[in-house]
Amino acid sequence: MNIFVCIKQVPDTEATLSVKDGKTINENNIKWIISPYDEYAIEEALKVKEKIPESKVTLITLGPKRCESVLRSGLAMGAENAIHIETEEYIDNKTIARAIAYAIKQEGNYNLIFIGKQAIDDDAFLTHIYIAEYLGIPVATNVTLFKYESEKVFVEREIDGGEKEKIEMTTPCVIGAAKGLNTPRYPSLMGMMKAKKIPIKKLSLQDLEIEEIDNKIIIEKLFAPAEKPQGKIIEGEIENAVKELVRVLKDEVKVL
Amino acid sequence: MANIGVYVELKEDKLKKSNKEAISLAKRSEKDVHVIIFTNNLDQHLDELKGIKNIIQIKDQDLTYQPDYYSDTIANIIKDYDLNDFIGICSAQCKDLFPRVAAKIDASLVNDCIEIDFKNNSITKPVFAGRLLAKYRVENEFKMYTIRPNIFPVQAFGSEGNPEIITKELNKKELKTKIIDIIKSDSKKIDLTEADAIVSGGRGMKEKENFKILEEIAQLLNAGVGASRAAVDAGFATSDMQVGQTGKVVNPKLYIACGISGAIQHFAGMKTSKVIVAINKDSEAPIFKKADYGIVGDLFKIVPLLKKELEKIYT
Ligand SMILES: Cc1cc2nc3c(=O)[nH]c(=O)nc-3n(C[C@H](O)[C@H](O)[C@H](O)COP(=O)(O)OP(=O)(O)OC[C@H]3O[C@@H](n4cnc5c(N)ncnc54)[C@H](O)[C@@H]3O)c2cc1C
Ligand SMILES: Nc1ncnc2c1ncn2[C@@H]1O[C@H](COP(=O)(O)O)[C@@H](O)[C@H]1O
To answer: pTM of the predicted model, to two decimals?
Structure first.
C-alpha cells in the first residue's frame, strides 16, 4: 500500500496571535505544531502500515522553510518518506490542493490519502475534498472510524445531531480525519533519531506545473474580533443570586 | 444575467432553521434569488418559501443524500441558471457537499462566513479558531459560501407572487463515495449548531449521572446539552456534545457553562454566544472573564436552584 498523509504546520492552539501589516500574523515567539487533525491522519496511516507491513507512508507539506519541522515530527512518529513543497508565498486552498494532488500523482501509485478535515489556522475545511476531486477519487470527510478490507474502505463520519453516516469507498480514496478516529502516538526516541537521517524531498511549485500563482481568494485584512466587556459576577447569597440571574436573563437581556 | 442561488437543506424532509437566514442574506444581494430544494413533496414547503420567485425542485424516487449525485446535480444547475453566487449553511452536509461542487465548476468557496458584501465581493470569516477574523476578496465568476448559523438576521422574503417552479431530475451519473447507512443517535438531540440555548457541563460535573440535571434544564429551555472536552474525555458526555476548537462551534442566544474553566479551546467554540452565563466555584476561573453573568459557588447547589427558578417561568 502506498499511503500519503498531508500535514500542515500551524501555530499552537494556545498561542497569542497578533497581526502584522494587517494581513498576516506576527511569527515571533510562535510555537509551531502539526495541525491536530493531521495528527489523527498520520496515526491512522501508521495503523494501516502496522497491519499491512509492506506499506509505505509518505508525508507531504506545502509551505515555507519552517514547515520542515512538522515533517521531522511526522517521520519521528514512524512515517518513512517526506515531501516538502516549498513556497514562501501565500496561496489559496485550491492552488494548495492542485499542487499536492500533482505531487501525489507524480510519485506513481497511491492507495490511501489521509488528510485532516480542517487546518486550525485558516479553518477552511476545503483542501482534502479538493485534492480528491482533482485526483478524481472518492473522499469522506469528518471521519471518526476507518476500516480497510479487501480493497474496500469503510468509514463512519459524524454529521449533525449526533448522527453518523456509514460510507463505502474503493481505493484509491481520501479520508478527512476528525477527532475520535484514534489517539495519536508520541514519537519514540529511536524514531526521532531515525527521522533526522531521512532525506526530505524538496519540490517547488514549478516542479508541479504551477507556473503562476493565480489566487482567487485574496486576504484583504486580518484582525482581532471585538472583545466582550468584562462580565458581571452576581454576588450575594446563592438563592438570591440565582433569582437575580433569572430576572436579568428574562427581563433585561430577554433570552428566556 | 447573474443570479444568486440558495441550497435549502432538509433534515428528514423538514427545512432547517438556518435556511431562512441564508435566503434572507441572498435577498440582500438584490439579485434574482433561486432556491434549490431536493424534495418530492414541494407543496409542504411552499408556505415556508413564500415570497421566493424561483424554485428549482429536484426529484427522484430516492433522494437520500449521496454527495456525488447531489454535487453533480447542483454543479449543473449553477451553470445552467448563472447562479454566480451560491449560498448554503455551514452544516455537516454542506461542508461535505459544497467543496465538491466548487471543485467541479472551479468556483471559489469560503466556509463559515459571518459577513458577506456582495457588492465588493468580500467575505469575513473566523480563522485560528475565532482568535482572529479574516476578510477575503473573492475574484471568481462563480462564488460559493456557507454561512455560520444564528448570525445572519431573518427577514421577510417579500411578496413576489406565485413562485415559478422548475422541476429537475437527480443526476445519477456516478457514485464513488457511497453512503450505505445512517446511524441515528439514541436520543432526539437538539442540533447544537442551530440551538437557541445551550447548557454545558465540564469536568466540574464530576460524573456522567450529574449531566441529568443539565438535561432537565435544557428540556425546560428547549436547549441543547453541550460539554467541554474534559467532560467528553472523562466519559461524562458523548463526543458530539463537545463544544470548542475540536468540537462544535455554537452560537446560541444563551450559553450556560457549568463547571467549565474556560480554556481558550473551549471559548473558540462558544464565544460568539449572545449571552454567556458561568457557574464555577473558582472565582479566578478564566470563564468569568468572558461570561456576561457569573455566579461563584458550588454548581451542585446552584444548578438545582436555577432549575427551580426556571420551572416557575416555563411551567
Ligand atoms: C488541540 C486542543 C484542542 C482542544 N479542543 C477543545 C475543545 O474543542 N473543547 C474544549 O472544551 N476543550 C478543548 N481542549 C481542552 C482545553 O484545553 C481544556 O483542557 C478543557 O476545555 C477543560 O475542560 P473543563 O473546563 O471542563 O475542565 P477544567 O479545566 O478541569 O475545569 C473544571 C472547572 O470546574 C470547576 N468546578 C469543579 N467542581 C465544581 C463545582 N462543584 N461547582 C462549580 N464549579 C466546579 C473548577 O473550578 C474548574 O474551573 C483542547 C485542547 C487542545 C490542546
Ligand atoms: N499547506 C498544506 N500542506 C499540507 N497539507 C495541507 C496544507 N493545507 C491544507 N492541508 C491539508 O488539508 C487539511 C484541510 O485544510 P483546510 O482546507 O485548510 O482546512 C489539513 O488538515 C491538511 O491535512
So the answer is: 0.94
